[in-house]
């Protein structure tokens, strides 16, 4: 790192601070402004913020680890989540916007009511703010630890303190306003850095034309496969994991109906159409645009650094080895941008859970808006300290990601059913959460379960939690009908699962069929736009062209259906 590199990094940090602090007064006026920008965001800003939030400094390191250890096909670990991402677009975006909640946890009392719902809301607020989001933030900071250890030789505590201080400063000052506007600036810088490193890495590995052959000659031909390598037994770990990603993970995770940071951005949009458009834009960009700069750099690293065993850190090694002066500073700034956008989003949302769904709801419900905004800022500081302590204990980004998928996998079915089946109640969620947590600790900490494969652990957690939730649902009283009718009139979920509430005249089956059709078109469009370009880049022209043709046809059918039936 030269003086020019540090000047670029410093300029980026100063710009982020300026954007954040310039919005302090507006964010301080109310909780709605501090956590939702007054519910007045256009689709393009909310969608860009979704993209920036889900692109963290850990993401390229995570993808590099997947490709180097297994191959391109292991990216189905996150590509499969497109199936739930498109549900968020064509089904849940409008539901969340109609609900008018500040956080996804707030929906619990809106949907169920009564003391069990209040207890569940308070528990989940603390659970997400202090546990789940702490793990996510630790994963994000760990990536910067690996990057700055390679770049400048810093240890964990230096990185935790220095890399976080600017983010915490503007997140405290400007709340969600600062988050979304810095996200808009940061995603441009982050994507520029990802493309830059991919270009230099592929060039250093001999160019795009020869890259596949050089990887095959090195004995790693399986790394180029988009599916588990041919010839593997159907019961092999790779095939079973692939089946688990496509068959289990996408619908079983706790954020299947949108998830906290995505729901927050849906809720902050001006209208239902803005919420839907923002989420659609996010899914296209998240999968089709961002994938290949990371994967190409990872593939090049197999040629350039075949013997490095810390696969995640290779991305940072390439940054320092391959980029010239100035470009190295831009690349580090881009990784800081990715890191800061995600950390600020999760700091803001964690604080929203704690203040809106616990402190304001149970401790100081009648305090002033100014008081609650102050509580939000103080809670951010406290949560940052907790995150720093946890980060010091974490070692693997991929390991943390897979643990989160497994840990939250027992509740996804309930998160879906609460929208589509009137009989689901607060005790259903409580049972699913309790059993999911218990089985997760059993699967990861207790022999012989700890030695099971990842897919086996998923099946144990999902099946056990679903069975417990179903039994408890039937064994407990339903939600009072007055509450159910109020929720149905507000959100208008599909009437099929709400017949006792909606009555025989409450049908909107045609609209639900429209939504499912749009979901299928959307999945085909984005998945084809993700895989097709990759095949073309790696020289598989006929396969790539064929997949892009199918993707284009799906896009045409989606556009025609929208033209006839509308988005909402």
List the helices and strands and how they pair.
Layout: H1 3-21, H2 24-27, H3 31-36, H4 43-53, H5 58-69, H6 76-79, H7 82-99, H8 107-111, H9 114-152, H10 156-204, H11 211-217, H12 237-252, H13 260-267, H14 272-289, H15 291-304, H16 314-322, H17 327-363, H18 369-391, H19 397-407, H20 412-420, H21 426-445, H22 454-475, H23 481-491, H24 499-502, H25 509-537, H26 541-565
Helix pairs in contact: 1-10, 1-17, 4-10, 4-13, 4-14, 5-15, 7-14, 7-25, 9-10, 9-16, 9-17, 9-18, 9-19, 10-15, 10-17, 10-18, 12-22, 13-14, 14-25, 17-18, 21-22, 25-26
What's this model, at a glance?
By secondary structure, the chain is mostly helical.
What features would you describe in this structure?
- The chain is mostly helical and 568 residues long.
- The chain is built from 26 helices and no strands.
- Helix 14 runs parallel beside helix 25 (509-537).
Number of strand elements: 0
Average pLDDT score: 88
Helix content: over 70%
Low-confidence stretches: none
Spatial shape: globular
Write down the Rg: 23 Å
Q: How far from one another are the termini? A: 51 Å
Structural class: mainly alpha
Which sheet architecture does the biggest sheet show? none
Provide the β-strand percentage band.
under 5%
Order of helices and strands: HHHHHHHHHHHHHHHHHHHHHHHHHH
Count of separate DSSP helical elements: 26
């Amino acid at each position: 790192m030269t003086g020019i590199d540090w000047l670029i990094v410093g300029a980026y940090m100063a710009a982020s601070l300026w954007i954040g602090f310039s919005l302090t007064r507006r964010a301080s006026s109310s909780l709605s402004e501090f956590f939702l920008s007054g519910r007045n965001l256009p689709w393009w800003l909310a969608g860009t913020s979704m993209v920036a939030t889900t692109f963290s400094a850990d993401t390229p390191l995570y993808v590099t680890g997947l490709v180097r250890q297994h191959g391109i096909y292991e990216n189905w670990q996150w590509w499969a989540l497109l199936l739930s991402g498109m549900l968020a677009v064509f089904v849940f975006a409008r539901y969340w916007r109609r609900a008018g909640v500040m956080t996804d946890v707030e929906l619990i009392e809106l949907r169920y009511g009564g003391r069990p719902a209040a207890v569940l809301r308070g528990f989940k607020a603390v659970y997400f703010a202090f546990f789940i989001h702490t793990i996510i933030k630790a994963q994000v900071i760990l990536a910067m630890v690996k990057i700055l250890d390679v770049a400048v030789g810093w240890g964990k505590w230096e990185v935790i303190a220095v890399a976080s201080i600017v983010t915490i400063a503007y997140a405290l000052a400007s709340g969600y306003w600062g988050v979304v506007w810095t996200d808009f600036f940061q995603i441009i810088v982050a994507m520029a850095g990802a493309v830059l490193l991919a270009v230099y890495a592929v060039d250093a590995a001999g160019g795009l034309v020869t890259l596949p052959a050089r990887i095959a000659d090195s004995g790693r031909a399986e790394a180029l496969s988009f599916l588990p390598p041919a010839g593997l037994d159907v019961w092999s770990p790779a095939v079973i994991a692939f089946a688990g990603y496509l068959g289990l993970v996408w619908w079983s995770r706790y954020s299947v109906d949108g998830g906290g940071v995505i729901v927050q951005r849906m809720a902050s949009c001006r209208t239902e159409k803005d919420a839907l458009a923002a989420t659609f834009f996010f899914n296209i960009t998240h999968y089709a645009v961002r994938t290949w700069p990371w994967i190409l750099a990872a593939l090049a690293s197999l040629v350039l650094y075949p013997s490095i065993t810390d696969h995640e850190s290779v991305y940072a090694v390439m940054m320092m080895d391959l980029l010239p002066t100035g470009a190295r500073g831009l690349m580090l700034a881009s990784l800081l941008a990715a890191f800061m956008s995600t950390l600020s989003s999760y700091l803001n949302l964690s604080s929203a859970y704690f203040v809106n769904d616990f402190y304001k709801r149970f401790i100081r419900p009648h305090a002033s808006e100014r008081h609650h905004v102050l509580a939000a800022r103080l809670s951010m500081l406290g949560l940052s300290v907790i995150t720093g302590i946890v980060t010091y204990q974490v070692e693997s980004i991929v390991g943390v990601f897979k643990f989160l998928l497994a840990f939250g996998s027992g509740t996804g079915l309930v998160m879906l059913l609460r929208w589509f089946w009137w009989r689901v109640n607060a005790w259903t969620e409580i049972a699913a959460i309790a059993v999911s947590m218990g089985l997760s600790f059993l699967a990861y900490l207790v022999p012989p379960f700890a030695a099971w494969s990842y897919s086996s652990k998923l099946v144990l957690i999902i099946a056990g939690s679903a069975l417990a939730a179903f039994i408890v649902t039937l064994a407990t009283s339903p939600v009072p009908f007055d509450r159910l009718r109020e929720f149905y009139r507000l959100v208008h979920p599909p009437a099929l699962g709400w017949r006792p509430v909606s009555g025989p005249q409450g049908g909107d089956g045609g609209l639900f069929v429209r939504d499912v059709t749009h979901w299928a078109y959307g999945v085909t469009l984005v998945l084809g736009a993700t895989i097709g370009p990759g095949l073309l880049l790696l020289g598989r022209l006929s396969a790539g062209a064929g997949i892009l043709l199918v993707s284009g046809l799906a896009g045409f059918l989606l556009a025609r259906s929208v033209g006839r039936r509308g988005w909402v």
